[in-house]
Write a structure and sequence with these properties.
The chain is an alpha/beta fold. It has eleven helices and twelve strands. The strands form three sheets. A five-stranded mixed β-sheet has the order 4-3-5-12-6, with helices on one face.
Length: 326
């Protein structure tokens, strides 16, 4: 006996949305149709299956036994279709490979290295999306993310690349006038307010506590909404910033920034390469991950003279000490 034909896709989409929202009005809003059109599609599906799927109450709906039995299969079917759609999109080599990362990582770590990826992989067009917002891989058409985070949830591939830490940094000329943490009382403190978005990340108050000295007007000084302009201000000798070692590795190695003293405070989590599970086997994403790992080793070499290994230890390392003079 031949298999019965499948119900219309629009009817299944209407049922899926209504079952998730338990509301015809909200489901209609999601699908950009009128409630009447959505109700007609569901009745069409009920006719196809020969049984009611919802009980229509006065101001609500509830699933019948048949509706509850249908929900998991329909959900799995749409997820399988979305996965197949992702696989087809990944086959489109002409489409740019899109990587999202925070603005600081993009400006201070990724962008200055992009020429090396382009030279090694001229066949891959790489597109950056600099955003602190957590993007959806499907809806926002993003292939991978580079994020400072803990271990992500199920359904994702994750590879920890490096960890980070914070330590005072300033222009070399200013560093010659800073011999101990108490000397910061006579200097402008530069604040990166974006660090507060990372749960558990230390700021100036925590740094002074770790150094064992009273903070000199921790709330004063210069404030910036993101890390890269805060570092730029330090580079222009506007004050002292609590710098992220991995993102300032090039400036430290070139002598544009100096570390007057420790302690070094670890940041929580690790910078991770994240993509949908299975997508890491795509040739272009595999090439991107290999390049990121090579660049991580480059950063490790830059930071070696400063006594910090971004690739060693656990996701949250213990405090260390910076060299007496960088």
């Amino acid at each position: 006996m031949p298999d019965p034909r499948l119900p219309p896709l629009d009817a299944l989409r209407a049922f899926d949305a209504a079952a998730r929202h338990m509301s015809f009005a909200r489901a209609a809003e999601e699908l950009h149709v009128t409630p009447a059109a959505l109700s007609w599609r569901i009745r069409q599906l009920e006719t196809e299956l020969g049984t009611p799927l919802f009980r229509r109450l006065n101001r609500a709906v509830e699933l019948t036994e048949a509706g509850r039995a249908l929900v998991p299969g329909v959900a799995r079917g749409f997820e399988a279709f979305r996965e197949a759609q992702r696989a087809v999109r990944r086959l489109g080599e002409a489409r740019p490979l899109t990587l999202t990362a925070g603005p600081a990582v993009t400006a201070k770590w990724l962008a200055p290295r992009l020429f090396r990826f382009a030279a090694a992989h001229p066949e891959i067009e790489l597109r950056f999306v600099a955003s602190l917002r957590t993007l959806d891989f499907d809806r926002d058409e993003v292939d991978a993310a580079l994020r400072l985070s803990g271990e992500p949830g199920p359904g994702l591939f994750s590879k920890a690349l490096w960890r980070d830490a914070l330590v005072p940094m300033c222009a070399p000329a200013r560093a010659t006038r800073l011999r101990r943490p108490e000397d910061l009382a006579g200097h402008t403190l530069i604040h990166d307010d974006s660090i507060s978005r990372t749960a558990g990340a230390p700021g100036w108050a925590e740094w002074f506590a770790a150094a064992g000295v009273a903070p000199p007007r921790v709330e004063g000084g210069l404030r910036f909404s993101s890390f890269d302009p805060a570092v730029d201000a330090a580079l222009q000798d506007a004050g002292v910033v609590l710098g992220r070692l991995s993102l300032c590795a090039a400036d430290l190695a070139a002598g544009r920034l100096a570390i007057p003293f420790g302690p070094i405070l670890p940041m929580p989590g690790a910078y991770r390469f994240v993509c949908p599970a299975g997508a890491e086997r795509d040739a272009r994403l595999a090439a991107l991950l290999a390049w990121l790992e090579a660049e991580t080793e480059s950063t490790r070499a830059q930071l070696a003279p400063f006594g910090f290994d971004p690739t060693g230890g656990e996701d949250r390392p213990g405090p260390g000490e910076a060299p007496e003079r960088a």
